[in-house]
TrEMBL record:
<dbReference type="InterPro" id="IPR036649">
    <property type="entry name" value="Pyrophosphatase_sf"/>
</dbReference>
<comment type="similarity">
    <text>Belongs to the PPase family.</text>
</comment>
<keyword id="KW-0378">Hydrolase</keyword>
<protein>
    <recommendedName>
        <fullName>inorganic diphosphatase</fullName>
        <ecNumber>3.6.1.1</ecNumber>
    </recommendedName>
</protein>
<dbReference type="GO" id="GO:0004427">
    <property type="term" value="F:inorganic diphosphate phosphatase activity"/>
</dbReference>
<dbReference type="GO" id="GO:0000287">
    <property type="term" value="F:magnesium ion binding"/>
</dbReference>
<dbReference type="GO" id="GO:0005737">
    <property type="term" value="C:cytoplasm"/>
</dbReference>
<keyword id="KW-0460">Magnesium</keyword>
<keyword id="KW-0479">Metal-binding</keyword>
<dbReference type="InterPro" id="IPR008162">
    <property type="entry name" value="Pyrophosphatase"/>
</dbReference>
<dbReference type="Pfam" id="PF00719">
    <property type="entry name" value="Pyrophosphatase"/>
</dbReference>
<dbReference type="GO" id="GO:0006796">
    <property type="term" value="P:phosphate-containing compound metabolic process"/>
</dbReference>
Length: 309
C-alpha cells in the first residue's frame, strides 16, 4: 500500500518534472527521485544542475550527541539557537563571502572511524558508516580533518566529460582541511579552498577539495596550489596517495584521479569546480528535502520544493 510519504514524493517528482520539463522516477523503498539516464557535460553547459536551496541559514549551530560513539545508534545532530534540530547539509550556509566557505567536519584528523552525514535520515545527522551490519573504519588514520561542503551534491546523472565521463557519486562535495588543529566531529570550520583532486572511485567522480581553516596560523600564506606546495610541501601528493590506496587493504583496486593525476588550481578544472573555488557556486546549487522540505529523502530542485510549500 502506498504511504503518505510515497505519495508526497510522487507529487514532489511530478512538480519538479513539470517545472523543468523532464520525467522523474522514484524508488518505493527510499522515496528518492532520480534522473532516468546520465546527462553529458555538453548538454548542461548553458544550465548547470545546482540550484540554491530555500533552507534557513543558521550560524548559531549547536551539537547534540545521541548514543555512544562507535555504536550503530550513535548520531551527532545539529541544533539551531532555539534548540530545534536542523540539517548540517541543508541548513548551514555554503558561502560566507570573500571566497570563504563553511565545512562540516565528519572525520577529525588522526582518527579512523568512517563518519559521514546520513543523507537518507531526517535532519541528516552525522553517523558512523555501516557495511554488512558492521561499523566501518579506515585501515589507518586519516591525516587531515575531513568533511563536506554544505548545500552541495555530486549529481549521479551528470557525466563529466572533463574527467573521463565519470558520474557524480551522489554525495556532498568532500573537503580535506590541512590545518594543524585537530577538529571535532560536527565542527563548522570557516575555510578557503586551495585546490582540488578529481578522484574516480569505481567509475564515480568524487571531488576532494583541499582547503585550510582561516584559524590556522599559516592560512594567510596559502591561496593556491603553488602556495600549498611551498608551505605544506608534499601534502597534496600525500592526500592523493592516501585516497588512492586506502581501499587496497580490503582487496579493492586503487582509486584513480583525473586532470592528469594532479591537483587542480583555481584557474583549472571544469565549470562547476571553477565557480566553486571562485566563490560563485551559490547561484546554481542543488539540495535534498529530507529535512528542509516535507521530511522526505527525495532529491528535488528547490524551486519545485517552494511550489509544494
Amino acid at each position: 500500500m502506498a504511504t503518505a510519504a510515497t505519495a508526497s514524493a510522487s507529487r514532489f517528482a511530478a512538480a519538479a518534472g513539470a517545472l523543468y520539463g523532464f520525467r522523474w522516477r522514484t524508488s518505493p523503498l527510499t522515496h528518492r527521485a532520480f534522473f532516468p539516464k546520465p546527462r553529458s557535460a555538453a548538454s548542461l553547459r548553458s544550465r548547470r544542475h545546482f540550484l540554491a536551496p530555500a533552507a534557513l541559514h543558521r550560524h548559531d549551530v549547536q551539537i547534540q550527541e545521541e548514543g555512544q560513539p562507535e555504536t550503530l545508534d550513535y548520531r551527532v545532530f545539529f541544533l539551531d539557537g532555539s534548540g530545534k534540530k536542523i540539517s548540517p547539509w541543508h541548513d548551514v550556509p555554503l558561502q560566507l563571502g570573500d571566497g570563504v566557505f563553511n565545512v562540516i567536519v565528519e572525520i577529525p584528523k588522526d582518527t579512523s572511524a568512517k563518519m559521514e552525514v546520513a543523507t537518507d535520515e531526517p535532519h541528516t545527522p552525522i553517523k558512523q558508516d555501516i557495511k554488512k551490519g558492521k561499523l566501518r573504519y579506515y585501515p589507518y588514520n586519516i591525516n587531515w580533518n575531513y568533511g563536506l561542503l554544505p548545500q552541495t551534491w555530486e549529481d549521479p546523472s551528470f557525466a563529466n566529460s572533463e574527467v573521463e565521463g565519470a558520474l557524480g557519486d551522489n554525495d556532498p562535495v568532500d573537503v580535506v582541511e590541512i590545518g594543524e588543529r585537530r577538529a571535532k566531529i560536527g565542527d563548522v570550520l570557516k575555510v578557503k579552498p586551495l585546490a582540488a583532486l578529481a578522484m574516480i572511485d569505481e567509475g564515480e567522480l568524487d571531488w576532494k577539495i583541499v582547503a585550510i581553516s582561516l584559524d590556522d596560523p599559516r592560512a594567510s600564506l596559502v591561496n593556491d596550489v603553488n602556495d600549498v606546495e611551498k608551505h605544506f610541501p608534499g601534502t597534496l601528493m600525500a592526500i592523493r596517495d592516501w585516497f588512492r590506496d586506502y581501499k587496497i587493504p580490503d582487496g579493492k583496486p586503487a582509486n584513480k584521479f583525473g586532470l592528469g593525476n594532479k591537483a587542480a588550481n583555481k584557474e583549472q578544472g571544469d565549470d562547476y569546480l571553477y565557480y566553486l573555488l571562485h566563490g560563485r557556486a551559490s547561484w546554481n546549487l542543488c539540495c535534498l528535502i529530507n529535512s528542509t522540505c516535507l521530511l522526505l529523502g527525495a532529491w528535488t530542485w528547490s524551486r519545485a520544493c517552494q511550489r509544494l510549500i
